[in-house]
Amino acid sequence: MEDKILKLLPYVSVPSRYTGKEINAVHKDIERCKVKIALCYPDLYELGMSSLGIRVIYGLLNEDKDVVCERVFSPAGDMEVLLKANNLPIFTLESKRPLKDFDIVGFSISSELNYTNVLNILSLADIPLLSSERREQDPIIIAGGNCIFNFAPLKPFIDCFVIGEGEEIILELVDVLKEIKGKGRGKILSGLASLEGVYVPLFPVEKVKKRFVKDFDNAYFPVRWLVPLTGIVHDRVSIEIMRGCGQGCFFCQAGSCWRPVRIRSVERIMDIAGHTYKNTGYEEFSLLSFSSGDHPQIEQIVDRLVGEFRDRKATISFPSIRIDTFSFQLATKIKEIKKTGLTFAPETGEALRMKIGKRIKDSELISLVQKAREGGWKQIKLYFMLGLPKEKDTDILDIAKLINELSRIMSIKAAFNIFIPKPHTIFERARFITEEEYLYKKALVVKNVRRSNRIKLNFHSYHMSCIETVIGRGDEALASVIKKVWEKGGKMENWDEYFRFSLWEESFREAELDMSLYLSEIPDGMSTPWQNITL
Ligand code: SF4
Fold it and tell me: Minimal CA–CA distance to 181: which of 150, 139, 119?
């Protein structure tokens, strides 16, 4: 099959997405491995390769000589057309084998809008979409990632869900496979169901508890960092210096699901930096966490990295620097820190901000932006949300006022998202605003922000947020809607240019389900599809 795939590459726009020949890619003799795993990220290569989770699981599994883990990403449209025209299945990058040759096909899912891509990959692999239709010889389909904190809408398609941090569970899963492989699909699934943090729909349980890495400092890190041969979204070494967030904003699912806060030590960070530098040739380290400035030794980390790598011309960056926690003294002192985007998410006006758990005042923000200006930054990106519970017109006027004031200090890019009530947050039962309300709020912003070439406003798609809400809080009944959307050609819906709201409207109608019910407030006392998951 490899020859046939290679012959297609000259006809696709980005062949390097499919070669599997990146520096540090692992090529094993697949026939000699007891357990074979195809690790899928259901979106384009450039996004999937920017996921630290994919890199960690890939590296960790391949450390075991008896296990082979190979990668799969959603093919771009041109490759999909060629695969179908040549009657070829989707393949893993490393050995170019069909997914059916693997024991496990594992999906890491970080967006609800990727669910149709999951079905598309299964279909391109010629694996039945429904668990109930899979045969003895089909791979076990596993899913984990952010979205799996409410797995109900995916239940009919997935054989086994992993709740929480994959690297904590994956080796136990492999042990089950090593022991039970060949004894029948039912026995394997029953073995997997016995693990904590795993939910197997065939063997339902009342409660499933999230797993998380307890010894984060010594947890596996993929120092043999894959170096892609094409540009990806985050093209550098990303060192996770901290996991979890202690801020507790009422709307934030990441904050509530990825607790507790765990810190990586300075020594371990230096060790990772040294090895990845040697193994990759990358000259940029990005220090990753929800809020790097919250790391108690952040100044020491930066000082040590700068000292160690100054002569080797390596730079340090933060994917985004949260202005409320970053030390500008440090930033101005150390010129080597790349002036990457300065960001802050005020979310809303000050009065409402205080009520949603984000306790920073406008005056503090303004003074920090002033210091940033003195430190050399010229632009800040601000994130706001419209439609938060109990939002009033005055809150929106406060947003406009803040943008106007900050724009006198530096250029502003203001991105407006729509509040999405997410499972496991304090606001999980709140309603999603109507389109009319959204348009009114948007107009209020536009009318009250001053006209200036120092201000750029950007508004996220109402309908995409609407579908994220519907699926994010959805129940098992939604599986039929997701399947219909995919059958009508819905895929790559995370991308504005491919997302089609009309497919969702049609599919809801055909499934005789009322979309508005999924958007309205969930009364206290009513059960939720995610209440079987404990964090
Ligand atoms: S919004 Fe940011 S600061 Fe607030 S809980 Fe989430 S990650 Fe933490």
Answer: 139
Domains 234-339 and 341-460 share a fold: yes
Helix or strand holding residue 104 (H, E) = strand 104-108
Atom of ligand 1 nearest to the CA of 358: 4
Q: In angstroms, how far is CA 532 from the centroid of its own chain?
A: 22
Q: Is 343 in the pocket of ligand 1 (CB under 6 A)?
A: no
φ, ψ (nearest 5 deg) of residue 56: -65, -50
Residues with Cβ within 8 Å of residue 524, at least 6 apart in sequence: 429
- CATH 3.40.190.10 for domain 341-460, yes or no, is no
Of 146, 124, 120, 116, nearest to 500 (Cα)?
Answer: 116
Compute the distance between CA of residue 353 and CA of residue 293 in angstroms, rounded to an integer. 20
pLDDT digits (tens, 9 = 90+) for 98-118: 999 999 999 999 999 999 999
Tell me the ipTM for this assembly.
0.99
- Each domain of the chain, given as residue ranges in start order, spans 2-209, 234-339, 341-460
In this structure, CATH architecture of domain 234-339: 2-Layer Sandwich (3.30)
Pocket probe mutation, ligand 1, options 250, 258, 291, 353, max atoms within 8 Å of Cβ: 291
Q: 3-state class of 320 per DSSP? A: coil
- CATH numeric code, 2-209: 3.40.50.280
